Amino acid sequence: MSPTTPPGDRPLRADARQNVEQILQVAQDVFADLGYQASIAEVARRSGLGMGTIYRHFPNKTALVESIAIKVMRESLAQVQRALSEEPGSWTAFTRVLRHMVRLRSGQLFPVSRGRATEPGPELSSIRTELLAALEDLVARTQQAGVLRDDVNAFDVVLMLNSIPPRLTDTEDGSPTADLADRYTGVLLDGLRAPGSEALAQPAPGRREIDQFFRTVHGL
């Protein structure tokens, strides 16, 4: 399934495909700004599309969020692969990937749909597994180069990405205001550089802790 071909759909006409792309991009921004409690009505308001158009392509919010998750995970996976092949060093590849994921708010969507009554679709499960493996490889290479502290793992990184605050919104009209992501990403990266001056408590998190975090915090 492509992000521009919702579940059960045949290949879309150009205008319908454009609508789907617009819905996905706007919804991604809405959830980044307001969290998963944001309504489909807010997506419709910001996109300028009717509720019927959105529900024609995505039968419910779960389907919409899963499609966004697939989109951003695919983009993040491609970014890991490109960074490792294009950057001159492991640290620059690592920082490029983290800053990219923060811009996409990938961390917020990473383990989406875990713990639901229904299991996520095979495409979501597959791309999530691929991205986790790519991040583990990136972390291992950066540690082997001696520039990333050796007492963190890829699961730490995913959870830390979720500590980056969302864009702040104006309380009057809900429009985005300050975006402090780049500022706090700098603080995060500084703390991850080897050798690290503060000993970390053990044990390190694993997949179980990531899934539990998202069930508890986001109800996913």
From TrEMBL:
Gene Ontology molecular functions: DNA-binding transcription factor activity; transcription cis-regulatory region binding
Keyword hit for Transcription regulation: yes
DNA-binding region: 39-58
Assigned keywords, A-Z: DNA-binding, Transcription, Transcription regulation
Pfam families to which the protein is assigned, alphabetical: TetR_C_43, TetR_N
InterPro entries: DNA-bd_HTH_TetR-type_CS (IPR023772), Homeodomain-like_sf (IPR009057), HTH-type_TetR-like_transc_reg (IPR050109), HTH_TetR (IPR001647), Tet_transcr_reg_TetR-rel_C_sf (IPR036271), TetR_SbtR-like_C (IPR049445)
Superkingdom: Bacteria
Domain HTH tetR-type: 17-76
SUPFAM superfamilies: Homeodomain-like, Tetracyclin repressor-like, C-terminal domain
Name of the featured protein: TetR/AcrR family transcriptional regulator
Species in which this protein is naturally found: Streptomyces botrytidirepellens
